[in-house]
Amino acid sequence: MPENIQYEIFRSMPENLEKKDADLFKRSSWFLVTPSKKIVLTNVFILWQGQIFKNGKVITESLSTPLFLKRYSPKFFITCLLSSIVKGNFTRLKKHRYLIVHDEWSLNYFHWLTDVLTRLYSVKDVLQRYTLILPDS
After folding, report:
1. Using CA of residue 51, residue 56, residue 61, residue 64, what is the dihedral sign?
2. Do residues 136 and 91 lie in contact, with contact meaning Cβ atoms separated by under 8 Å?
3. Pairing of β 57-58 and β 52-54
4. Which of 52, 57, 94, 103 is the 20 to 30 A CA-CA neighbour of 134?
């Protein structure tokens, strides 16, 4: 993964923005995309929103913010795992290199375009070495 490269992102306010909604966009008008970190994991369970579990514990780096850590208890993991098994809603991936570029917010169109795609762009030089895992919605 590229090291020490930061991308500074400036977003213009939408042209059709109503004054009452300005505060919603103000905090997202500028942000810094920090360097991506390469984390090698094996034998993990990945939820549809990108949270990664190993041995029933959430991998903190798979969360969009550590503030969500309390949300993903071992009980939550077991519930999701059993639900996936009962519904047959899981895929066992072959041993390979995979890249995940989504999080709890990326199902939202705004966050997909502005957060996930900027993160994906930051690793564009290594994409050919990985199979990209994307949410299906």
Report:
1. positive
2. no
3. antiparallel
4. 57
pLDDT at 128: 92
Of 24 and 83, the structure prediction assigns the larger pLDDT to 83
Distance between CA 38 and CA 79 in Å, rounded? 28
Least confident of 2-11, 42-51, 98-107: 2-11
**Tokens standing for residue 70:** 């309390």
Q: Which residues contact 7 (CB under 8 A, 6 or more apart)?
A: 32, 33, 118, 121, 122
Under 8 Å between Cβ of 106 and 113? no
pLDDT for residue 121 is more than 50: yes
- 133: exposed, middle or buried (C-beta count within 10 Å: 0-12, 13-18, 19+)? middle
- For residue 55, pLDDT over 50 is answered with yes
Q: CA nearest 52: which of 34, 33, 67, 72?
A: 72
In terms of C-beta density within 10 A (0-12 exposed, 13-18 middle, 19 or more buried), how is residue 102 classed? buried
The SS3 of residue 57 is: strand
